[in-house]
Design goal:
heterodimer, A: 6 strands, globular, B: five-stranded antiparallel beta sheet, Longin-like_dom_sf (chain B)
C-alpha cells in the first residue's frame, strides 16, 4: 500500500540507534533524588570527609558515562587529546548537557602550573541545599567534582578534583569553585603535550607529501610509518587538524 | 507600617517549627510562641469538627479588632499562618508563595529532618525577600 510507513523493527535492543533522548528533566525530581542520595550516604558514614568522598565516587560513575555518551553524540566519536581541549569540553559541552548552561568561567591557577578552576555562581545541585553551620566547609558540589574527575580520568588526564565555597564581598552566597589538580607531574604532562604536537607535525608533513604515496618518516629518533589509513580523512578535515597544531 | 506582624509554621502534630516576628512589639518569648502554636493547632482541629458546613477543612481567617489571622493548611497537615493588620486582602496568595518556598528550600534540603524546627539559611533568605517585596507592593498601593 502506498503511503503506509513502517517502523523498522529491531530484534536486538543493541541494534537500535541511540536517540538524542529527552533534553530536560524535572528539576524538582532531580532535587529530591539528590537529597535522598546525600541523606542515604550520611547514614553510612562517620565523618564529613567520608561523606564527601562517597558523593565524589557517585559522581565519578556519571562522569565516565557522560564522556562516552557525549563523544558519541556530539563529537562524532572523537575525543580530546589536548589539555585545553578537554578542559573546554568539560566547561562547555558537559556543563551544557548536564546543567543546561555553560559554566561561568574557566581559569588557570596562579600558584601551581597544573591547577585549573571552573567556577560557578551557584551549582545546580546546590540550589535548594543549605549547609548547617556545624558541617563546616562541606559542599554537596563534591558530586559535581566527581563528575569532572570521571570525565578527566576516562579521557586520560588523571586529576584530583574538589569543590570549594569561595566567599565574595558584596554577595550573600559564596561562589562555588571546582578545583582541578592534574595528577601527572609537571614534566610528564608537558612532555605528553610536546609528543602530541610532534605527532601532529609529522601528520602535517605527511599530508603535504601525500602525492608521493605512503612515506617513511624519521622523527626524533623514532621511525613512524603512516600508511594509507590517513587517506580516509577528507582534505577538509586534515586542514582543520592543521589549524589545531599549536607547537 | 508593617503589614505582617508574625509568621508561624506548625507541623502536623502541632509543634512549632518556624516563627518569625516582623512587628515592632519585639520577639515573643519562645515558650509563649510554642503555646500559641499548639493553641492554634487545637482550635483549628476543633473547628473542623464543630463546623456546620460539610467538608470543612478548618479555620481560614480569624478577624479581630486589632489583627487578622490568615491560615493555610497544606494537604499534609502542615499549617502556615500569619498574624497581620486588619483588612489586608492578598494574604492567601502570600501564604501559598511561602508554602512554595517551604517545599523548595526546606523539603529539598537533605540536612532538614522532617517535623523538626527549620534552620535553613536559603529558606530564611528567600522568605525575607518575599515579605519585603510584599511590603513594598502594599505601600505602593
Amino acid at each position: 500500500m502506498i503511503g503506509v510507513g513502517k517502523v523498522k523493527q529491531y530484534t536486538n535492543v543493541l541494534d537500535k540507534p541511540l536517540s538524542k533522548g529527552k533534553q530536560e528533566v524535572s528539576l524538582s525530581a532531580f532535587a529530591f533524588l539528590f537529597s535522598e542520595l546525600v541523606q542515604y550516604n550520611q547514614t553510612q558514614v562517620d565523618n564529613i570527609a567520608e561523606l564527601e568522598r562517597r558523593l565524589e565516587d557517585a559522581g565519578y560513575g556519571v562522569g565516565v558515562r557522560v564522556l562516552e555518551l557525549l563523544c558519541h553524540r556530539d563529537k562524532g566519536n572523537r575525543r580530546e587529546t589536548r589539555l585545553l581541549g578537554i578542559l573546554s569540553f568539560v566547561h562547555s559541552t558537559v556543563w551544557k548537557v548536564l546543567f543546561g548552561k555553560v559554566a561561568d568561567s574557566l581559569e588557570k591557577g596562579t600558584e601551581h602550573e597544573d591547577e585549573y578552576m571552573i567556577s560557578e555562581k551557584e551549582l545546580l545541585v546546590n540550589r535548594f541545599i543549605s549547609i548547617p553551620k556545624d558541617m563546616g566547609t562541606f559542599n554537596c558540589g563534591a558530586f559535581v567534582a566527581g563528575i569532572v574527575r570521571g570525565v578527566l580520568d576516562s579521557a586520560g588526564f588523571p586529576a584530583t578534583v574538589s569543590a570549594h565555597f569561595v566567599p565574595m564581598e558584596g554577595q550573600q552566597r559564596p561562589r562555588t569553585t571546582i578545583l582541578i589538580k592534574f595528577a601527572e607531574e609537571d614534566g610528564n604532562l608537558a612532555q605528553r603535550e610536546r609528543e602530541i604536537c610532534a605527532k601532529n607535525a609529522a601528520f602535517m608533513w605527511i599530508y603535504f607529501r601525500r602525492k608521493c604515496g605512503p612515506a617513511l618518516l624519521s622523527f626524533q629518533g623514532r621511525v613512524v610509518l603512516f600508511s594509507a589509513r590517513t587517506n580516509g580523512l577528507s582534505a577538509a578535515r586534515m586542514r582543520e587538524r592543521d589549524l589545531h597544531i599549536m607547537c | 507600617m508593617a503589614a505582617i506582624y508574625s509568621l508561624f509554621i506548625i507541623n502536623k502534630s502541632g509543634g512549632l517549627i518556624f516563627y518569625k516576628d516582623y512587628g515592632s512589639a519585639g520577639r515573643m518569648d519562645t515558650n509563649d510562641s510554642l503555646r500559641l502554636a499548639s493553641l492554634w493547632h487545637s482550635m483549628h482541629a476543633i473547628s473542623q469538627q464543630l463546623s456546620p458546613t460539610i467538608g470543612c477543612t478548618g479555620i481560614e481567617l480569624l478577624e479581630a479588632d486589632t489583627f487578622d489571622l490568615h491560615c493555610f493548611q497544606s494537604l499534609t497537615g502542615t499549617k502556615f499562618f500569619v498574624v497581620c493588620e486588619p483588612g489586608i486582602q492578598h494574604m492567601e496568595a502570600l501564604l501559598k508563595h511561602i508554602y512554595e518556598l517551604y517545599t523548595d528550600y526546606v523539603l529539598k534540603n537533605p540536612f532538614y529532618e522532617m517535623e523538626m524546627p527549620i534552620r535553613c539559611e536559603l529558606f530564611e533568605l528567600n522568605l525575607s525577600q518575599a515579605i519585603r517585596k510584599d511590603r513594598i507592593g502594599l505601600v505602593g498601593r
